Amino acid sequence: MCRWIAYLGQPTYINEFLYDGPRSLCAQAQQSHKAKLGVHGDGGGLGWYGNQECPGLYRNPGPAWGDPNLRDLTSQIESRLFFAHVRASTGAPNTFVNCHPFRKSNWLFMHNGQIGDFPLVQRQLEQSLDDQNYADIEGTTDSELLFALLVSNGLYEQPEKAIRQTLGEVAAICEEKGASSSFRATFAVANGDEIWATRWSTDAYAPSLYQRVQESNVLLASEPLDNETSDWQEIAPNSLVKLKRADNGTSIDIQPLFEAGVQHVRAV
Fold first, then answer.
1. What string of DSSP letters covers 145-173?
2. Which residues 6+ apart lie within 8 Å of 197 measured at CB?
3. Which of 68, 69, 104, 135 is most buried, most CB within 10 Å of its CB?
4. Full-prediction pTM beyond 0.90?
5. Coil, strand or helix: which one is 34?
6. For the chain, which residues make up each domain, given as ranges?
7. Per-residue pLDDT for 31 more than 90?
8. Mean pLDDT of the chain
9. Whole-angstrom Cα distance, residue 250 to residue 247?
10. Which CATH code of 3.60.20.10, 3.20.110.10, 3.40.630.30, 3.90.1150.10 fits the domain covering 3-256?
């Protein structure tokens, strides 16, 4: 599993979120408090929006806490919307192209979770892609394939519909193929002005997600970045979170991904 953070608000320097304090993202990469795996050293990455429509992207397959280039970049980059991710591989090789975030056009995507028994369902999932999104895949992760499926299903035009459709389709194929492991999807996508994030799983163990609101600044994180517990609110499983830039700050909308009975959850 992985750790990630997503920020939307007033422009801010990124380094404080990655390095400052005993529970910063790079500290979590070395010792997580909420993840099944304690160490997340299989790569790290950063995606950020500046003055260009297309976001910047930096990825490195080495441990994020030991990457001097990442530390130097984040001390200089000021952004109103950024993603940062540290990776613990669930099987795909530790290579540059398998590191998050992933970028398509002006969109970013990052994921904490896995498509259970991925080799069992990978071919059928790939066959449901349109030709362009299949050709655009560079790596071998289930996460990048999930992003491609979202785009194929209309992410650019109707993000919420595409998210629900994609999760339902992947879950259905996993069930059809007899996958014994769960499909877990705590992920975030962004287009430069808005962020959509999910906390969801086909079992009762959706990977964790928290939010912190400070004035007009909203931070989503796999786990809190500090010990100020009253500042952090846990996002419930089966949730779709939408953050949007507004005239008076940042609007937050949280709603169920699926109504009761529409997408069942199986306990293990």
1. HHHHHHHHTTTTT-HHHHHHHHHHHHHHH
2. 6, 186, 187, 188, 189, 209, 220, 235, 240, 241, 243
3. 104
4. yes
5. coil
6. 3-256
7. no
8. 91
9. 8
10. 3.60.20.10
